Amino acid sequence: MSALSKLNKEMPILIVDDFSTMRRIVKNCLKQLGFSNLHEAADGQLAWEKIQEQEFAFIVSDWNMPNKMGIDLLRDVRGDARFKEIPFLMVTAEAQKENILEAAKAGVSNYIIKPFTADLLSEKMEAIFKNRVQ
Fold first, then answer.
1. Is the pTM value of this prediction over 0.85?
2. What is the rounded CA–CA span in Å between residue 10 and residue 16?
């Protein structure tokens, strides 16, 4: 049995991207995987405000956004004891090695390069949650 099949499909997930089309794509992929409690933020600053107001079990964030970049949101989440354990998946068009290393250093749970499929999202989530699901 996969880690994803054991997950609570009602867990609150935050999708952060400045492009509504990309948020919709991520949302549709997550829906295909059975998740239904999906929330959105149009940039890292709005996401940070939401994270402080509501509990999330998983964050999927773009890298390049106005107001607060995804990498800065990741650093904020990892730097706050209340949120540092939340799994964080970075979704980006940035495939440069330096960016991947920077995200890894900042504590990203996993990384996806755009464009991607629901299957790839599923694989990345499987890798993130396999050690967390009992």
1. yes
2. 18
Q: Is residue 6 part of a domain?
A: no
Total domain count, the chain:
1
- CATH number for 19: 3.40.50.2300
pLDDT beneath 50: ranges in the chain? 134
> How many angstroms separate the Cα of 6 from the Cα of each of 33, 43, 105?
12, 30, 29
Helices (H), 1-134: 3-6, 20-32, 44-53, 70-78, 97-106, 118-129
Q: Residues 113-128: pLDDT tens digits?
A: 988 999 999 999 999 9
Contact present, 100 and 79 (Cβ < 8 Å): no
